[in-house]
Amino acid sequence: MQIVEMENHSEDHSSKEYDDDSEYEKEEENGSLKLNKGMKFETWELAESYLDEYAKQQGFCFRRIRRTLDPSDNTIVRRRTYECTHGQTHEPQKNILEKDKRERDSEMIGCPWHINLSFPKFSNGVRINSVIGEHNHEMNPLISEIAPRFRKLTDKMLEKIKFWTIQGRMGLSTQYNLLVALFSDKVINKKDLSNAIQQFKKQAKPSKNDACQMLTELYLKKDEDPRWIIKPRFDVGKRRLNSLFWMSPDQINAYGKYNDIVIIDTTSKTNQFDMILMLVIVVDNNFRNLIVAAAIIEDETEATFSWLLQELKNSCDVTPITLYSDADPALISAVKKNYPKTHHFHCIFYIELNLRKKLKGKLHDQFEPFHAKFLAMRNSLCPKKFETEWKKLINEFPACKQYLTKVLYPCKNSWAIFAINRNFTAGIQSTQRVEVTNRIVKKKLNRSSCLTDVVGEIQRIFDQQSKKAIISECKNEIPTRGIPSIMDEYFPNLDKILREYLTPQILQKQHDQMAQSLCYDTVLIEDWKPLLGITDDSYQQEIAREDDYDQPQSLFFLLVENIPHNNILQVWKVTRHHGQKSEPQYIVLLNDGSHLCTCLWLINRGVICRHFFQVMSYSANAQFHISLIPQRWYNNNKYNFEQHEKNILVSFHIGENELGDESEHPLSQLSFQHLMNFRQTSNVVQVQGPKQKYGFVKCFIENTKAELSEQQENVISIHIGDPLKVQHKGRQPNRYKSCGEPQRKKSKHIQDITNITNKNCEEVVESQVDKKRERHCKKCGQPARIELEREEVPECEVDDNDNDSNINL
């Protein structure tokens, strides 16, 4: 071992100080870095930085082995010693027998390289006292990519990783690609990145009880605005949170406006307690999804669903007119008990999946013919024909009788087209809208998320949805000018009224219908009573009937069965131009100013159909009034209008001056009573209650504020335990296994008992449960290894149970 003193060069190096990185760069340009006795550095950080660059250039790594502090000030370091990572030798602390020792190597091979640095009291910097520059091992040119000291993540990298993990919810692969692009000169190890991500995830989790923190944040919001609805349920004995239902004030107002169409669905894997997230979605006036309520529940029982539906009803004192959900028996029963007047429809997509799941295994090759006939039955417009087709289906496929009669038939009014087509559904057939929202939620939440994150994410999505609607409405108010369109040429006055009242999305749908009206021909039917005798429906397409654009959605006799014949002014037949195949549609003009069409667009979607606009070009009895379109599609400025306002009593018709022929004068009063009766709703324009229109009045807020404060103090003061946490098997996704975890799963041994012929088979199987699968001799029944150990090996065949092959011993 040789100590390099370098006393002859003390004059050259003792006065050489390194104050910044520029000095290092100059020395690198001149040649390789060197360490000499007497070299000075301004700070300890600069000294270590120089040592790092020197070690990378030489091809080794070092570590700190000694540090001496100032006796009078513990924050000042006076001496430090660094040595090569291969320095010293490994000495076991325990005396273990050679056979019990693990086969493990050590990097400590007694390398002599080390360096001593000091920071004297009466000096201005750090200096090198002594250097031993020899190594007893080869240098590694890739040490910067191998040694943990050189590949560690910098502070800038850690800041980026923290932001991407907590705010962006990014995974390992995405962050790795971003870091490589931002820090191309650095070596980034995926294991180090994974450890950093996991560390920041732990910091993001609540430090105290998750359920207690979530309730505390919600009740603090309720203290600021008493209109918040927060309804938790607890396990009183264990003081544990079971369920939670919440609505913000803006969600309450939205639900009061758009409660005519409600979609409910549940989803899982959104929190670490494996609780079920239930979302209540409505369709706003911009034809977009809007989350108006959310709940975290422990189970999907009828009692839990009844509690949720009752809390939803109490929020605005209203019940949904139409509700869509999957065919969950518990939810169906809860809706029937709590919302008896609500039209509960089932998702047609889930009905399709359940048919394949339950009946395809029974029918095999007959499933496709059954499926075609089932759709034809479902698409029947006449209830009597539906019953006839149902009986035929049961008789032809008796294997399906139990499932069809016990599961589908009792709720036929929830999925058959003859029961759905008379209700306002906004064109919805399934729970696809809420499934899309579930996918958005699951992009940010997973089964390791805390409950606080779940509540925050739901509110963030609702705020984004509300902001989109506001921006869209503001854009619509910007005056624009373009080339003349069909609406400007054929419907100028009508388009002006629609632009004033409708939102941009509904206005576009209405414009599409107005433009398509030019593709149709219309004929006045003088004697329309023979149409009442047409009860046959010959639609045989293997799709849902409402998906066929030009198919009638109602028979004529069903359209006018509840209307006195003397109230019908005219009946028009509308067909596409010659050469285009389509079924004819019938428009019925009524004496109260309303109309009905067999396409049922005005009933189902709340949009005036293309057939009516074609009839308007020929009949003065066809009148337009903005109240024909439901108020839910109006923009926010026109939503709370009153019927007696002057600007709402606007009728549009094409009179004799425009047609050039004699026509009847339009009616002076518009009641739309027949339209309301067909819709099965009490009012075309929904009357708002005091809660929806004005919110909670001030006197009610003042009277209940004290009570809410007491409830908040009582709830927060009690320690609320978290729900039961479900520990899932296996490692979490996107996480590397540690060295202590088994890298492979143990193979399961399955006993093959196909060749056992003993009478007492059960006893034989029980005795062989714990044995491994082995090859056995066919003659003596002993394992092959026992036969091989005998002195005289018999010439017998061995049965290989694993691959059923015969091997001669």
Can you describe what's shown?
With 809 residues, the chain is α+β, with helices and mostly antiparallel strands. The chain folds into six domains: 7-92 and 104-151, no CATH class; 155-204; 208-347 and 430-478, Nucleotidyltransferase, domain 5; 348-427; 481-690, no CATH class; 761-808, no CATH class. Mean pLDDT is 78; it is low at 1-22, 643-669, 682-700, 712-718, 745-772 and 786-809.
Topology:
Elements (H helix, E strand, L loop, with lengths): L9 H4 L3 E2 L2 H10 L9 E2 L2 H15 L3 E8 L7 E8 L29 E5 L7 E7 L10 H4 L1 H4 L3 H12 L5 H11 L7 H15 L5 H15 L4 E7 L4 E8 L1 H9 L3 E7 L8 E8 L5 E9 L4 H15 L5 E4 L3 H10 L4 E4 L1 H16 L3 H12 L4 H14 L4 H8 L8 H4 L11 H13 L6 H26 L9 H5 L1 H10 L2 H13 L3 E6 L30 H4 L8 E9 L8 E6 L4 E3 L3 H4 L5 H7 L7 E2 L25 E2 L3 H4 L13 H7 L10 H5 L3 H20 L43 H7 L7 E3 L6 H6 L7 E4 L4 E4 L1
Parallel strand pairs: 1-2, 9-12, 12-13
Antiparallel strand pairs: 2-6, 3-4, 4-5, 5-6, 7-8, 8-11, 9-10, 10-11, 14-15, 15-16, 16-17, 18-19, 20-21, 21-22
Organism: Rhizophagus clarus
GO molecular function, one term: zinc ion binding
Keywords: Metal-binding, Zinc, Zinc-finger
